[in-house]
């Protein structure tokens, strides 16, 4: 094995590292940060006090991370578990103190046939393991979204309504 890249990712030790799609790397460090990297460039990151304001950042930190491609699963020293969207780090799921103590690892249920059976109608499933000797399954409900045709129809209606309002407000506009 040859080293191909070296850079400073965190101040202090790295607690966990996960490889994601498109050559992205996710790191969780003792500096209370979780970062997504493309080569040696920071793509985006989470800082504990920005993600969960009001909770002192010196008492908590990210401990474990996994990136499924679409989602990033995180476990913390306090036993909390979260799921974020990989590219924006928007939080979709959070359970404060899901475990009694440190989450040592998290893993997404694979999208194999047995994995899909566990998922049921949910978008993702994350397993968390902690020092409390428990393994828990966290199910992310399927997010609702508008169909593209409905969105286009709404946009067209908005444009027509705007033109009609302008015509009423300023006769002879068109």
From TrEMBL:
<dbReference type="InterPro" id="IPR045260">
    <property type="entry name" value="Sec12-like"/>
</dbReference>
<dbReference type="GO" id="GO:0015031">
    <property type="term" value="P:protein transport"/>
</dbReference>
<protein>
    <submittedName>
        <fullName>PREB protein</fullName>
    </submittedName>
</protein>
<dbReference type="InterPro" id="IPR001680">
    <property type="entry name" value="WD40_rpt"/>
</dbReference>
<dbReference type="GO" id="GO:0005085">
    <property type="term" value="F:guanyl-nucleotide exchange factor activity"/>
</dbReference>
<keyword id="KW-0256">Endoplasmic reticulum</keyword>
<dbReference type="InterPro" id="IPR036322">
    <property type="entry name" value="WD40_repeat_dom_sf"/>
</dbReference>
<keyword id="KW-0931">ER-Golgi transport</keyword>
<keyword id="KW-0472">Membrane</keyword>
<keyword id="KW-1133">Transmembrane helix</keyword>
<dbReference type="InterPro" id="IPR015943">
    <property type="entry name" value="WD40/YVTN_repeat-like_dom_sf"/>
</dbReference>
<keyword id="KW-0812">Transmembrane</keyword>
<keyword id="KW-0853">WD repeat</keyword>
<dbReference type="GO" id="GO:0005789">
    <property type="term" value="C:endoplasmic reticulum membrane"/>
</dbReference>
<keyword id="KW-0677">Repeat</keyword>
<dbReference type="GO" id="GO:0003400">
    <property type="term" value="P:regulation of COPII vesicle coating"/>
</dbReference>
<dbReference type="Pfam" id="PF00400">
    <property type="entry name" value="WD40"/>
</dbReference>
<keyword id="KW-0813">Transport</keyword>
<feature type="transmembrane region" description="Helical">
    <location>
        <begin position="146"/>
        <end position="170"/>
    </location>
</feature>
<keyword id="KW-0653">Protein transport</keyword>
<dbReference type="GO" id="GO:0006888">
    <property type="term" value="P:endoplasmic reticulum to Golgi vesicle-mediated transport"/>
</dbReference>
